Amino acid sequence: MKYRRLGRSGLKVSEISLGSWLTYGKSVEDDTAIKTIQRAYELGINSFDSANVYERGEGEKVMAKALRPFRRESYIITTKAFWPMGDGVNDRGLSRKHVFEQLHASLRRMELDYVDIFYCHRYDPETPVEETLRTIDDMIRQGKVLYAGVSEWTAAQIQEAITVADQYLLDRIVVNQPSYSMLNRYIEKEVIPVSSKLGIGQIVFSPLAQGVLTGKYRGGHIPEGTRGSNPEINQWVQNMIASGVMAKVDALEDLANELGITLSEMALAWILRQPNVASALVGASRPEQIEANAKAVEVELCQETLDKIEAILA
Question: What's the number of domains the chain is made of?
Fold first, then answer.
């Protein structure tokens, strides 16, 4: 495994991270999930991502349980808050009340004293950024959070967070967690340039476009047991197929075959070509899946290959 600094912070994360969305605590049996997480750790992966909303905390529980046998200092575990966790008017968003209560609920579920990164899971237009950042800053000062992060914030929102933090001498965010893949490149235009300037790194999710960039949906067929067969994201995969993008995916897979690597390895290596990306966050329901994804860190794409990929994606 290889490691990168997260933005300008001193924290080093593995180039492949493992997440728990739509897998642990739900569609994957706990025993298999634990074996997968522990196999990731054995492979050198030190970055493990969860959120309070993932199966209402069940994803957090499984991930923390799997990591419990290992030294706490040897891994990075994260959680988030924003999405509704109840029916009350304050059971959502980034108010001081919700962030405070959700962080402590996550720590109780995971039986941890602190999380390494706490993410604002989305931007909350109803709460002043100062209120949110000051709450997280308080948690950092209490030793319950080490680093602050955001997920899917725009370049302008990231800039606002830094401006507010500097104005009030609060801890700056050091990481953004956006969606990024060969088929979804929106962060290249503004988010990455602004983040690079401000010292913020990216840990990107959906680098394989929910499995589309594994080649498993070739020909538009969605096999049983894949992410595309999950009702929560099946429509998204169906839309991708209907858009005609699968012709590009087929061409990418043919190129990967020419290089003697898998499409997944090529897609992840393409993500990691970007210096502002510290890690690619993948999901895995079986140990062999995380083993396959971890191989991508050994792949380096030459400029000629990058040009061919760009031509296919154009």
Answer: 1
